[in-house]
Each structure stands twice: as C-alpha cells, then as structure tokens.
Specification:
The protein has about 525 residues and is α/β, with parallel strands linked by helices. Helices cover about 45% and strands about 15% of the residues. The chain is built from 18 helices and 19 strands. The protein has a 5-stranded parallel β-sheet with strand order 3-2-1-13-14, sandwiched between helices. The protein has a 4-stranded antiparallel β-sheet with strand order 5-4-9-10. Strands 7-6-8 form a 3-stranded antiparallel β-sheet, with no helix packed on it. The mean pLDDT is about 95.
Length: about 525
C-alpha cells in the first residue's frame, strides 16, 4: 500500500559555510527520502536556508552590506553544496521568499484566532550606547543554569533554550555596554499550555525518536514549558501581520520551523496535492533530521505550533537527531583551524565517498571523531576493497575473456533468497532511521558476493565446467544488479554507473532485480580509485 511520507531537513543558518556537522545531520534524511521513493511511496522532502535573525544583521553591519546580501550569498552556496552532494530535495527554498512570508502570516493568524497568542508589556534589554532594544542574540552573558558563557537565546554549554532573564551579567554583543531595562510591547505564544501534550507525544514516540531527542526533551519538560515571544524588535525578518506591531518582525524561531509547512505546501501545490489532507493523514509518516542542538525546536516548539494551528495536523513520527562531529579529537572550531567546510571536502574527495563515509560512520548515537586518515581508510577498505572489488573483478574478467558478454544462466537459489531478505532488512532499518546498520547489512551482502566468487573459482570453472562458470558469473551479475538498488539511497551516482555498466534501463524500484537474457557489459571503468592522504 502506498504511503504518504513527509521528510524535513533542518534549515541551515545563512551566516557561514556548511561544515561536517551540517552534513552529518542532514544526509540521513536524503537516504530515507531516496528509499521511500524507490519503494513507490508519496514523498515530500523539503528544506531551505534560514535567512533571518540577528547573527545575519550583525555580520552585515561588520561587512557593510545588507542582511539580504549575506543571506543570499550563503543560500546560493548551500544550494550548490546540496546539489553537488546529490541531495534529492523536492524543494530547497529559503525564508526570504514571498511565498514563505505569506503562508507564515496565515499560520500566525490561525494561532492567534485559536487563542494561543497574547500581548504582553515587558521590560526589554536596551543598549544606551547603540540606542536600540536588543534581541536575545544581541545579548551575551552567563547562563544561570550552568554558569557558562552564553548568548541570550540558547546556551551552547548546556543546550538550554533561554529567555533573556536567564542570562546574568548581560551586555550588548555589539558594543560591550551593560544593558538597561525599558518597557516594550510584544506578542507571546502560549507554549506553556502544551506541557501535557508534549509529554504525551514524547512518551508515545520513545521507540521512534532517537534516544538523545527523548532524553533532551524530557530535560526540557522537567523545567516546565514557558511562553515564548513571537515578535522581536528587528529590522530584518518577516513583518508581523497584526496592527500596532509594524515596528517589529516575527521572531525567527517561529517562522523558520514553520518553513516545513510552507515548503511542503509549495511542493504539494506543484503536484496538485491537497496539502491539508496530506499533512492531516492519520497514517502519515514524518521524519525530521537535524543536529542535537536543534532538538527542542523539533520536539517541543514545532509540535506545539502544529497543535496550535490545527489539532488534526500530524505530529513528528521520527526524530533523526544526530550527536556531534569532532575533528582530530577536538570540538570543531573555526578559530582553532580544525573545521572543514563542505566546499573544502568536495574539493578533496568524490561526492559518493563523502556520502558513504558520513552515512556509514555518522554520529547516530554518540559523537564521532573525523580525521582525514580515517576517511581515506574507510574509502579504500569498503568502497575500493569491498564494493569496487566485487564489481570490477567480475566485469574485468568477462571483458578480458569474453569481450564483456555474460551468457544467460541459472542464478543460485540461496543468493536469490539472501537478496530478497537483504531488501527487506535494509528497508526496515532505513525506515527506523538506523542508517549505519542499514549500510552494514548492505556491505555484508557485498562481502557474501566476494566470498561466493572466491569459493566458486570461476577462473578454474571456465576451463573445467563452462556451465558452472556461466552460473557463477550470472549469479554475480545478478548480485551486482541488485547492489545498484540496495546502495542507491546512500551512493546514487555510483549505483547509476553500475546500472549503465549492465545496461539496466528499467525504472528503479525497491525490489529484487531479475535478470533476463544475456548481459553486455558496457565499460571496464573502475568505480573507485584508491585515495592517498596528502
């Protein structure tokens, strides 16, 4: 039965280049989307660039350009990075579009109409030197929960989402002056009213949300949910659609997460799909992929906003929240020079090598340590030594002895059984978001192929029993054909090369490929070259 699948990749922030951490967080969603499409399901897979907020305006001031120039520059860079790495988004957009702004305003109106937004006069931090009210990101100080240095919205040390009153010894991040308090009127979202619902949601999804997501959400809930500001005293952002708030913008935390809905709706409209019916489908399966520091926004704030808009909207089924990527045993830091951008990685390595490494070794359950040595070792061991070896040794021998012609013969029944089981088990693991385990199982299948080839010794069979030689070779070609399907969610370019090599022209599906007739191998190009760590 065809299923409706919604997949959202976290929206990277447009104030610096993407790095390994972004890739680790976002790649699993692409593998999941590719799998479900092969499975014949209705997939909407979206993301975009988070283009508003204080860090962008701060950077724009330093560079003496407009915030839009900064956001556009990085949006274009992000888009190219994702295209270069074969991300298969149905839509990669940004929060600067008129479509997004218009839909966010309508969703905000619904939340207001449903009684979850209210006005509040509050004392707000004001910089007497800059003569401005300060947004939370423009405030620096000490986190009252852990005592670490923090910005006013979230502590990078303990990951608490903060209100500015949770920050001690507050100073303006722009000029360093001590802030003073002045009254200002803002709109607030009644997040506190969803404490019980979020607790129940977390309990229901303990087996589908990753452990860190459940754990961090429970910590957040234990503190008690508090209402959050909807508006900010900013000049760069989406206009507030209510009277008397023309001097303010919608706070980025609310409009950015609503981007999942606005982008999803845009895709649905392009396909003539009723998005309201799609997103309210009781059987909808949804995935949200992001880093550990984004957990509360996806497990608490986003579900609360969905419930505030319409209680029938489907809530997150799977939270694919990764841990951290360290580099050379240290937390990645631009100032320390141990941060590698996606641009740099793409200049050094083939894209499928990058995809394979980050999916097969990703930080699903614990932090990982990235080193160039380890990257090269993984590429050479698995892509060259296992996968590439199995494909190339078979094709090279046939090209050498029979001009690339593989005669139709009998496929080993045990291999057929193993192949069908592998499809089922790998698919189940991908559906659960266990990408590392899925790749391990796929590699086991290739290992079986290499072992089968070694045990059957076709280089001897060719002289002693040509029928058995043909059976061995055809069985190996059968496995290679199915490898091009089983690995397609992970390394799509390589799998297409295999399909071209064997002239597999049928529409790809997540099911056993049954060979029929002779096979003429098209070329003897290596799938992967060995890498040297320079």
């Amino acid at each position: 039965m065809t299923k409706n699948i919604f997949i959202g990749g976290a929206w990277p922030y447009a104030n610096n280049s993407l790095h390994l951490g972004h890739l680790a967080a976002l790649l699993p969603a692409d593998a999941i989307a590719r799998y479900y499409r092969l499975n014949g399901d209705n997939v909407i897979y979206v993301s975009g660039t988070d283009s508003h907020g204080t860090p962008i305006t701060v950077r724009a001031k330093k560079e003496n350009v407009s915030p839009k120039e900064i956001a556009t520059k990085y949006h274009n860079e992000f888009k190219k990075n994702f295209e270069d790495l074969d991300f298969s988004y149905d839509l990669y957009t940004n929060t600067m579009t008129e479509y997004h702004a218009e839909k966010v305003a309508k969703y905000l109106q619904k939340i207001m109409d449903n009684g979850y937004i209210y006005e509040k006069d509050e004392l707000q931090d004001f910089c007497p030197v800059c003569n401005n009210f300060l947004s939370d990101r423009e405030i620096v100080g000490i986190c009252r929960f852990c005592g670490g240095a923090t910005k006013g919205d979230q502590c990078d040390c303990c990951l608490h989402t903060l209100n500015t009153e949770d920050v001690l010894d507050k100073k303006c991040s722009l000029c360093g002056s001590t802030t003073v308090m002045k009254p200002n009127k803002h709109l607030y979202f009644k997040l506190s009213q969803f404490q019980k619902e979020i607790q129940e949601l977390t309990k229901r999804n303990e087996n589908t949300w990753r452990y860190n997501a459940v754990n961090e959400t429970k910590k957040f809930l234990d503190l008690g949910l508090i209402d959050r500001a909807v508006t900010r005293q900013l000049t760069w952002g989406i206009d507030v659609p209510f009277k008397n708030f023309e001097d303010k913008k919608i706070y980025v935390w609310i409009e950015a997460v609503l981007g999942y809905l606005t982008a999803g709706q845009q895709v649905a409209e392009s396909r003539n799909i009723n998005f309201e019916e799609f997103i309210k489908d009781k059987n909808l399966i949804s995935y949200y992929a992001h880093g550990k520091d984004n957990i509360p926004f996806h497990t608490v704030i986003f579900p609360a906003l969905l419930m505030a808009i319409d209680s029938e909207i489907s809530l997150p089924s799977y939270i694919i929240s990764c841990e951290y990527v360290n580099m050379d045993n240290e937390k990645m830091s631009k100032s320390k020079g141990n941060l590698i951008s996606i641009n740099e990685l793409l200049s050094l390595f083939p894209k499928d090598s990058i995809r394979y490494y980050m999916l097969a070794n990703g930080p699903e359950t614990k932090d990982i340590n990235f080193t160039m040595d380890n990257f090269v070792q993984v590429h050479n061991k698995f892509l060259v030594g296992v996968l590439g070896n199995f494909v190339n040794r078979n094709c090279s021998y046939i090209n050498k002895k029979f001009n690339g012609l593989v005669k139709q013969a009998k496929v080993d029944e045990d291999i057929i059984k193993l192949t069908c089981e592998t499809y089922q088990k790998v698919g189940e693991l991908i559906e659960k978001g266990k990408i590392r385990n899925a790749i391990e199982l796929a590699i086991e299948y290739v290992n079986t192929g290499n072992k089968y080839y070694d045990e059957r010794k076709p280089w001897i069979q060719v002289n002693e029993n040509i029928e058995e030689f043909n059976n061995t070779t055809y069985t190996c070609m059968y496995m290679i054909a199915n490898i091009s399907n089983i690995f397609a969610p992970f390394i799509p370019e390589t799998c297409q090369k295999i399909k071209n090599k064997l002239q597999l022209n049928e529409e790809a599906k997540w099911e056993e490929i049954k060979l029929n007739g002779d096979i003429q191998i098209q070329n003897n190009d290596l799938l992967f070259e060995r890498l040297e760590n320079k």
